[in-house]
Amino acid sequence: MPLDERTTILRKNRVCFRCIASCDHLAKDCKAKVMCTECGSNKHLAALHVDGEQRHGGEQVANKDQSDDGANPRQNQHAGEITTKCTEICGNSPGGKSCSKICLANIYVTEHPETKVKAYV
């Protein structure tokens, strides 16, 4: 879901933009300890993180004039595509370590659209 849709939902439901957990206060009055896992900021959570491309309204699309030498892995990333990069050397531990991102989603069954299940995907 795009950032503007998320902020619209929060604003409509009068949810705090800082902790995203309360309708009893606004971000300026929020006392919760929060940290963005994307940039380390204590002003917002990752769900409301804005990177450079989003801030300037641009989508990340590969430039066809540039060569694909693998030097810039984000260069070839299509809009909406999710990639993960391991952030830690796993060493000799058996099985390695998963660094994949997870997202809470509402799952609906086609035959029973009124039934909703929340799951991480």
UniProtKB/TrEMBL annotation:
Ranges for the region named Disordered are 51-79
Q: What is this protein called?
A: Uncharacterized protein LOC113051617
Q: Which organism is it from?
A: Paramuricea clavata
Q: What is the lineage of its organism?
A: Eukaryota, Metazoa, Cnidaria, Anthozoa, Octocorallia
